[in-house]
Amino acid sequence: xxxxxxxxxxxxxxxxxxxxxxxxxxxxxxxxxxxxxxxxxxxxxxxxxxxxxxxxxxxxxxxxxxxxxxxxxxxxxxxxxxxxxxxxxxxxxxxxxxxxxxxxxxxxxxxxxxxxxxxxxxxxxxxxxxxxxxxxxxxxxxxxxxxxxxxxxxxxxxxxxxxxxxxxxxxxxxxxxxxxxxxxxxxxxxxxxxxxxxxxxxxxxxxxxxxxxxxxxxxxxxxxxxxxxxxxxxxxxxxxxxxxxxxxxxxxxxxxxxxxxxxxxxxxxxxxxxxxxxxxxxxxxxxxxxxxxxxxxxxxxxxxxxxxxxxxxxxxxxxxxxxxxxxxxxxxxxxxxxxxxxxxxxxxxxxxxxxxxxxxxxxxxxxxxxxxxxxxxxxxxxxxxxxxxxxxxxxxxxxxxxxxxxxxxxxxxxxxxxxxxxxxxxxxxxxxxxxxxxxxxxxxxxxxxxxxxxxxxxxx
Length: 460
What we know:
Keywords: Signal. This protein is of the alpha+beta class. The chain contains eight helices and 16 strands. Helices cover 22% and strands 46% of the residues. Strands 1-4-5-6-7-8-9-10-11-12-13-14-15-16 form a 14-stranded antiparallel beta barrel. Strands 2-3 form a two-stranded antiparallel ribbon.
């Protein structure tokens, strides 16, 4: 399906659907990678200086509760959990049974993955005479999260329901009058770009099982998409792809905060109520947290794809063949409110008809800005995403139906903006606007499209 102009960008977008849990679960869950960082590397120098001043003051007055908590707060902001722990434990020597300190220690040990120690402090916090109702409630939340984290099996995901308007839903040219092999033609009305509306469901589910061997996991991911169009029913789609396989912690090789995984791939697509294509393949992925602010993800995949000719799509077996795909993504938390990312990709699509065989390479870059809700009744932070991308695509041979001498090439670009408004910890409303343009030396493959989408996102 991804070779069709109307679906090329959709396929790339589907691969980026996050399979993740609710906001609350993400805040409470320990990281999948065992994180080992220098907490002060690249840190705010003003916070580092304040931490040093507070440490000196706290050592001079270890019984001072206010100083100890301020030092712990600054240390946590810097990611220096060990420093916060040492100060709070020292405070308990002078103020034994202080429920607030026991709660914070339990939370810090939880973040470090030391669940037994965390459980001890949290249980003390619950039973402390000085504990407030809020302290006991927070301790109960963390204790429940520990029980969940110690379960070797986990599952999380995202489901998106939405409605999309497209000014050029079928990715057709703007004019019916074209020249093919030097001869003027008038295209059928259905071949020209027209607007349409579709409803869709999309999502991703991630499952993992800890095999109990130095952090090694068995993982499975399912990505799915389905849509129904008001007019272009030939574009009605059902798509699913499953990946599954082991991933290994690289800590055993003294490579901190990194995983390497291998996986199999099974996929299928239906269009207009008929089987359209199927694929099998395998992949290799590498995930790493180079420092406390950034992440790196790389993968390489190979698929064997088979297509099925139908009355609506009578020549798609021309696309039978292998696909090779490579993607590298790097993201970084620039400030507390801004996270940016960049992605590069390369793709080779073999086809039984050489004029449909293509190479492509491209990039995308974007940023997310998180800000306080401007509406008091909606207390969760909002997010604004902006993304731009470009792909260059070259085909191997001329398509004799269009030109006997020129091979096709495409320049594809897009600009997308998303406003995400959480209405609950696990539910958000998203408004998306996108401009998409493909320039091609084949006039039948050149198109522009503007779209607007409203969707509801549910994380679990």
